[in-house]
Design goal:
Layout: H1 8-20, H2 36-50, E1 54-61, H3 67-80, E2 83-89, H4 102-112, H5 125-139, H6 145-151, H7 161-177, H8 180-190, H9 197-204, H10 215-228, E3 233-239, H11 249-267, E4 274-280, H12 282-286, H13 296-302, E5 319-322, H14 327-341, H15 353-364, H16 369-372, H17 375-391, H18 398-401
Parallel strand pairs: 1-4, 1-5, 2-3, 3-4
Helix pairs in contact: 1-17, 2-3, 7-8, 14-15, 14-17
């Protein structure tokens, strides 16, 4: 069997990220454990989207259960399926529905983080447009506004198509003339960075800009456009959905209404080549005062299948619940981390399999372990142990397992402002 190799860059990213309690951006294949059934469903979703369908999923799990890891892994799979991915976090300053520019900010971050297989870290907008532009230039001797408009006819059904087409015309003409200023102005418009319609009209000759009122329509439009550029479709990953629970009731309900709109469009076949993955906590989903279940129509759409029992999960609905890893899965994860730490060299192992079992027993014996032993805190503890064993090779694990406590993995509290409420639901 060929020995598995890991790049130094991947090893460092994995160890440093897990040590900090965050998801590494590279090397996930070295530590992925479990979630096989859930990922199979996501792969089915991507096939449906590539076939012209739409899908929305809510990835629900406790704080530290691996929601962000799951979204990141889903993003990598999407890239392998030739899908374009947009990613952003909900914050009190970036929301789905707003009248003060906060939805526009969310859209700008989504576009800034636009990624593909060849541009996995974001910033893929220009690459995608130029891929499409190069194809048009190859296929047409003379390119004018009419030529480009005809190429964009499949997008005509979208309300926002006219100015979108005009901006792309500006870009492709500037691309041919090597006019960086005009190209940057077109990209600025596509990233929703124009503050006023007047500025956009002066520089690009268009009457509209992407703002709070229309950004969702432009997401639909982008899904159609990436198809024309040669991609399978568009996936929108939005993390930290539970932040919406902290908003004032009026703003919160408007955001819930926007989510309902997206759900209905997806379920009724009103959108094409477009998928959404949201992440949140069970508390946020089920809370009837500030969570999604406080909005009755959402409760109806997102309620679990009443016939789904423990061990008989229904993964076909919009909600995918992530349970904490089983002890067996956690054991495999620790073996994987050991391999990464040792660069798959058995002579560099700092712990034996028996040591790992002792460590896991120690974890399970912590007060309240069953309720708060998330993958995140377990990983941090194991990395910390390996680090010390590397620093002090003459010691053994028993030296470190006495008198050490693992903190409960809870959401860090944020200071309140006039848009926050005192209730913390966790993410």
């Amino acid at each position: 069997m060929e020995k598995i190799k890991i790049k130094a860059k991947e090893k460092n990213a994995i160890i440093e990220s897990l040590k900090a309690g965050i998801v590494p951006k590279i090397g996930l294949q070295h530590i992925q454990v479990g979630r096989a059934d859930e990922l199979k469903e996501i792969i089915k979703d991507y096939a449906l989207i590539a076939d012209g369908g739409a899908k929305i999923r809510f990835i629900i799990g406790d704080y530290g259960s691996g929601k962000t890891f799951f979204l990141t892994l889903s993003k990598l799979i999407a890239h392998e399926k030739n899908l374009v991915v947009l990613s952003a976090d909900i914050t009190t300053e970036k929301v789905l529905c707003s009248s003060s520019g906060k939805s526009k900010k969310l859209f700008s971050e989504l576009i800034a983080n636009m990624s593909t297989k060849t541009k996995p870290d974001g910033g893929a907008l220009r690459t995608i447009i130029e891929k499409w532009a190069s194809k048009i230039i190859r296929e047409n001797e003379n390119i004018d506004e009419k030529t480009i408009y005809n190429k964009l006819l499949p997008l005509e059904k979208y309300v926002a198509c006219y100015d979108f087409s005009k901006v792309l015309t500006t870009y492709i003409n500037a691309y041919q003339e090597d006019d960086e200023l005009k190209m940057s102005q077109a990209l600025k418009w596509l990233r929703a960075e124009y503050a006023t319609k007047t500025d956009a009209k002066t520089e690009l000759g268009v009457r509209t800009i992407i703002d709070d009122t229309n950004f969702y329509e432009y997401l639909k439009l982008f899904a159609g456009f990436v198809r024309l550029a040669g991609y399978a479709g568009l996936i929108v990953n939005i993390d930290e959905l539970a932040v919406l629970a902290r908003l004032q009731s009026t703003t919160r309900n408007k955001n819930f209404e926007r989510i309902l709109n997206i759900i209905n469009d997806s379920m009724q076949g009103a959108t094409e080549y477009l998928g959404f993955l949201f992440s949140g906590t069970p508390e946020f989903l089920e809370d009837k005062y500030r969570g999604m279940y406080s909005y009755k129509a959402l409760e109806t759409r997102l309620a679990d299948n009443p016939f789904a029992k423990e061990g008989l999960k229904d993964l076909t609905g919009p909600v995918i619940r992530l349970e904490n890893l089983s002890q067996e899965e956690l054991y495999i994860l620790f073996l994987n981390i050991r391999n990464v730490f040792a660069e798959y060299d058995e002579t560099k192992y700092l712990v034996t399999e028996n040591d790992i079992q002792i460590f896991m027993q120690w974890l399970m014996n912590r007060l309240g372990a069953k309720s708060f032993l998330s993958p995140r805190e377990s990983n941090k503890a194991f990395i910390g142990l390996l680090t010390q064993l590397e620093n002090y090779p003459d010691t053994n694990i028993s030296t470190y397992l006495s008198g050490v406590q693992i903190r409960e993995d809870k959401e860090p509290k944020e200071p309140e402002d006039d848009e926050l409420v005192s209730l913390t639901l966790g993410e």
